[in-house]
Batch of 2 targets.
Target 1
Amino acid sequence: MSKGSQVSKEVLDKMSKLIIGRKKELEMMVRAIEKDLPIIIEGPVGTGKTEMAKALAESLERPFIRVDGDDSLTSIKLKGWYDPPLVLEKGFSRDTFISGPLTEAMEEGGLFFYNEVNRAPSETINAALTALDERLITIPQLGEIKARKGFIPVFTYNPQDTVATNPLPKAFYDRCIWINVTHQPLEEMIEIVKLRTSSTDNFLIRISCEIVEASLNHPELEYGSTVRGAIQLVYLFRANERIDEIELIERAISVHSRKIRSKTSSRKSEVKIIEEIISKVLSKYDDNRITRKKED
Ligand SMILES: Nc1ncnc2c1ncn2[C@@H]1O[C@H](COP(=O)(O)OP(=O)(O)OP(=O)(O)O)[C@@H](O)[C@H]1O
Ligand SMILES: [Mg+2]
């Protein structure tokens, strides 16, 4: 085995300890970065996009430099700017230039994490294109800044997010490796909640994940909840606390009702759907930890 692939195997092993499942996706990420290829992780809310990028930086032991896309993120903010008082004193030089996050990541050889890239103006993305393939950017008065070995850009994008977003240029996709993620299956979701909450209450964890899974597959929902919701619901209970159906519904409403949306064709409110999901999930269990709601 070559030295390079040995290093990649170590990185992959480390990532697999931080991320549940996603074996193929993690392997693809590691192969991409071996060849300095930028990555775009695309997927709905709460599918582990940020966590995968963080795990990559941690496993590579590289700095994680983050920027969040919004319409105020200009190319100047991304690359950097000159400090006016310093320029008056010293003129245009590297000392008077304040690096933006892209330049910082290139100079430090870090993982440049650009979250929700489609929320930034197209001009900002276009300005970053040379960093993606030629691994350099041009700064007025300074000239070219080249990326150190180790610089890797990772973008995220939620295709369901259509408010205040901009289409991504074809040239951007052309430079990137596209990793698509969707919600994970129940058993993986359970492992994620165990890992993130450190809870030992397996019954509560399972119920919380089954509620999320039922919401994701619900025919009357436009979109369901996320593993984040399952994590939050576990947090709202004390370990091994008796599960009172009415309390579970109340807490689940606080957790999930704004994470889900009922279809316009459905006459049911989100709250009603949560109640129905919970009664269906609990009906499977004949557990002495459940206090059931009395039928009205
Ligand atoms: N495969 C996974 N392994 C371990 N933890 C995960 C995994 N997927 C999701 N998580 C956990 O679920 C939560 C949501 O994940 P994350 O924040 O990465 O999602 P996201 O796709 O970036 O969401 P958003 O679109 O809202 O930014 C976090 O607590 C994260 O640690
Ligand atoms: Mg995220």
Note: The pocket of adenosine-5'-triphosphate (ligand 1) is lined by residues 19-22, 43, 45-51, 158, 192, 195-196, 227-228, 231 (CB under 6 Å).
Target 2
Amino acid sequence: MFPKSYDEARARFLASSESLKRRYPRAEMRSFNVPSAKDPNLFVDEIYIPGKKALLMLTSGVHGLEASLGSAAQLEFMSETIHLALEKGAGVYIVHCLNPYGWKYARRVTEENINLNRNFGTTPETFRTPNEGYLRLAPEIERNEKARHDLLHPFKTLKFLATRLFKKEFTSRTLTQAIAQGQFTNPRGLEYGGREQTPQARNLTERFKQVQNGYDEIIHIDFHTGLGKRNRLHLLTGFDQEKCVHPETFKRLFRAKDEAHLYKFNSGDEDGFYRTVGDINMMTAECAPGKKVVALTFEFGTLGTGLIANGRALSRLWLENRGTQNGFASKKDEQKIKAKFRDLFEPQDPAWQKNALDITHTVLRQVVERL
Ligand SMILES: [Zn+2]
């Protein structure tokens, strides 16, 4: 069942962790208080139950508002599948809601407007990665005006993009990358990755370096929603697929050809997808050198793929950011823009939710059976 709010999800996660700790006394629970100017009750909670050979790591809520599916999947895993994983001798590391501010205040980003999935760079150079394309689009994207709900905004967004393509300023590939890969220069803009790791990214990175010790295989699944076909699970990975997806381990755990009814593996170079700089999957690969790593994003689609769906998605991201940065034209504009934004990343449709959770459960169960 999907948690209705961050606070409810956190209470359920802690209760479930306590009950696991009673059954497996070697379990370690930790909570990290995310520094905030606004709210002292924002925590990233985790449970680690040590094992041998393979480590299964499940993370949720990197993109705040997208957390409810990941949280529901983690809770279901903790009540069922985890026992099989532990019987098989695997270690299990579950990190709940890496961006509690985002979930609680209905944003994808942190309180500092940082996209956490561009904030896991393990070297200072990552935070200096240039994005010339974004800088060319920024004057329009970051225009200093109040956000107004406008039924035509998705079409205006498409026109804005199409003009850039028509003028040959971009190809569709470089345009997607410019908008989505992350940028490290404009704190009020879209997909800002910060100037250094945020406290919660640093905390996870340091903790993961300890936890991964002693394992041969690391399987990391990070839950997201929004991108891709509606009702479809997409398996994506970090910036460098070779580092993030060990081919033999992946083939053993995921029989992608036979399981096309459950999910599709999409490389970041495919149409409609993109490569991300400073993502969490790359952090996993870089902090577990020499290990057989399979670090994946489980992304459940909501709007669909294709030009029109992409225009609609960008329009919603754009207006929500504009409203947050410059204010909304009216209370009604704010409500409408926020409702559309939520619908993109946290659909309330029970059929969508049930399907997403059923598929996630099935795929996780298969992974554990094949560990
Ligand atoms: Zn996401």
Note: The pocket of zinc ion is lined by residues 63, 66, 224, 226 (CB under 6 Å).
